[in-house]
Amino acid sequence: MTCQGHTAGSVVVLAQEPPQAWARSGHGSAKGEDTLKTSQFHFDLWFYFTLQNWVLDFGRPIAMIILPLEWFPLNKPSAGDYFHMAYNVITPFLLLKLIERSPKTLPRSVVYVSIIVFVMGASIHLVGDSVNHRLMFSGYQHHLSVRENPIIKNLKPETLIDSFELLYYYDEYLGHSMWYIPFFLILFIYFTGCFTPAKEESRMPFAAWLLVGPSSLYYWYLVTEGQIFILYIFTFFAMMALVMHQKRKGLVLDSNGLFLFYSFMLTLLFIGAWVVWLWNDKILRKKYPGVIYIPEPWAFYTLHLSNLQPAGDGA
């Protein structure tokens, strides 16, 4: 009798509770967390993300060139390779931290699969890029195709040239695709959670504006060196479409979404300026004959700026 009375009393109490209380318990816990989280600019993560991109990704071929060859023999990993290894660990960690801080619940399974593919692609690129950049010390010229390079075209037997083309394929095509597609997918998934009904949250702090320039300049390097303009522009257009769609619902970008959106927007201006500057370069035009003409920075370097010509250079 007592148990029945207790049960009946519990039902009465639950019936008197407002629906909002149910949302904070049981199956509504995830939605409750979404409403309780506030959108703040993640300066620490964006700062570390931008810094490690510049140091570990952009800086790795520079470190390989400027550090003495005696420290890193050609038959051993270069300093840039160790930078790449660190990048392959730190970048997915920071991407996961960004997803964790999203004010919305995002599809974790898609994120985890993307991270796995990202690490695999970046690791494939590590091997191919290591060999290709080390070939510079033997006279390899990045502004030429594999078969047109002086140190490659006279190799015997000729099947060796096929092996170098396979290496180039792993570096520039397969590695880049498995690296950059999940990278931009994760950024876009994070971007989908950067909308808020609060107009006061739709402004960037001063610290965010300071990071926009370095961040967008790195994306310029990523798009041009990785030859992924189509992937980048598709992601950017998807961002713009999502912004317009959410605006009809009365939602606006928070500070993190604005930072990512403005970084991508400024990247497009940098790419346009780069293309205009090198529009009439006949040698680079020959290497990039397609409709989309976007030269790689390292191809430009080996063609116009490189003064690292070893004594045994066949050029």
Describe this structure in words.
68% of the residues lie in helices and 1% in strands. It has 315 residues and is mostly helical. The longest helix has 34 residues, at 159-192. It is elongated and about 65 Å long. Residues 1-36 and 308-315 have low confidence and may be disordered.
Query: Major sheet: size, sense and barrel closure?
Result: 2 strands, antiparallel
Report the C-alpha radius of gyration, rounded.
Answer: 25 Å
Percent in strands: under 5%
Please report the number of helical segments.
12
Backbone shape = elongated
Average pLDDT confidence is 84
Count of strand segments = 2
Q: What kind of oligomer do you see?
A: single chain
Calculate the terminal CA-CA distance, rounded to whole Å. 98 Å
Question: Characteristics of this structure?
Answer:
315 residues; mainly alpha; two-stranded antiparallel ribbon; 68% helix; elongated; disordered N terminus
Could you write a compact summary of the structure shown?
The protein has 315 residues and is mainly α. The protein has twelve helices and two strands, in the order αααααααβααβααα.
Task: Give the SSE layout.
Blueprint: H1 2-16, H2 19-23, H3 29-36, H4 43-66, H5 79-100, H6 108-134, H7 159-192, E1 195-196, H8 206-226, H9 229-248, E2 252-253, H10 255-277, H11 282-287, H12 297-305
Antiparallel strand pairs: 1-2
Helix pairs in contact: 4-5, 4-8, 5-6, 6-7, 7-9, 8-10, 9-10
